[in-house]
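Tokenise the fold.
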Amino acid sequence: MNLAAIVDGHPDGATALRWSGGSCTYGELRHRVASLRGALVRNGTAPGGRVALLCANSPTFVETWLAALGAGASVVPLNPASPAAELQRELEVVQPGVVVVDEAGAAAWAGVDAGRLRCLVATWAADGAGVAGAVRSSELHGGAPAPVADVPPSAPAALLFTSGTAGAPKAAVLTHGSLSANLDQLAGAVPLGPDDVVLGLLPMFHVFGLNVVLGCALRGGAATVLEQRFDPDAFVGSVQAHGITVLPGAPPLWAAVARDASIPADAFAGVRLALTGAAKMPEAVSRAIHDRFGLAVAEGYGLTEASPVVSVSHGARWKVGSIGRPLPGVEVRLVDEDGSAVEQGDPGEVWVRGANVFAGYLDDDEATSRVLVDGWLRTGDVAVADGDGDLAIVDRRKDLIIVSGFNVYPAEVEAAIESHPAVALAAVVGAPDERTGEAVVAHVVLRAGERLDEEALIAHCRGLVARYKCPVSVRFAASLPLGGTGKVLRRALS
């Protein structure tokens, strides 16, 4: 098998990709991928090798992703906006044989000490800008193609850096089998077809953009519109101009849409499927989108280690605040600290089992053994199930704050804070406290033009949650640190 085969079987003339200033059909995409695959093989890429991508959402990313997979290599998608020091650490962990850089990644690559890496550098940057000594893209296209490598399902396909279910960032090993399985599982719940046009805005160096957006679209023969950044002023026009039918977005995108009073009620009339994930979707945003535009945004739950989707709330089972039920072929257990099943309605850690579960963390058996137990993936996330069997995430176990022996889940406190009309965004973390062990500290961003003091916000929280859950201090900020998909990085707060 080979995951790269997802582009096979679609009509040659069907549109595969669109981007600013261009497009290509599935026939053209297969031809370019085969040519690039041949160039990679001639330059030493073989099964077991590694190819790093320092690219934005672009044809370069898609072609190289498929070509490297087809050659049997593991692909390492990296954030082209990362600081050079972070890229240096990640590249030294994976030791790629090839690094592919486009214009978006050229500046970051310029700060990397390439002398500490033994690799071929290929650039699609204009005139090789910022990439000294690199092989030009023209040298990697136009040659003889190479056959697709037949690899076992257990062969690594992608190495994706993640903080994991706990601890420092590490490379999760996703296999051809796990990624393919999740595409099949997703197709059973939210199928895409050749009449669909999918917005490819979520970054493809992240597993949500990589497998849920790009992978599902290519598997289904849909067209993917590649966009590199969210432009609020152009967003609705782009959706309408391209005839978008499948609209995936992280919660901050949907929150921005909900806030924009200028968007007409029929703006998304052509969208048949709206999706969100990667972070908890605020219930107020879901309701606002539904009431105003008639869109029931399907909230999914997953993690990199599950390739990534575990469950989704969609169709007749759509409920505000719910992540739905597990995908077909995915098993979920909710367990207590002893690993025993919890009673219905009680919170429990989510354990996941299925062909979509990853192989482990690269060169880290200890970390792998902590999260893979008897075939189950221990996610570190806490959820509850309602009477219908639908799940709702309570919070991350690793972010748990313990105040005087009582558990405080940050998401609950954040929801209370964000219910204040002056608050745009909040993140809650624990701080050492001599009296209670830990104390709740809130980091808050106010809406433009709003004023609010610490005492008033704490008083607001006291009306919504138990006193021990309320913040003891509030730190107002202009912004909070966000990851690539808009999730607040609590670990970056102190």
In short: The mean pLDDT is 90. Residues 276 and 299 are 5 Å apart (CA to CA). The first helix runs from residue 26 to 42.
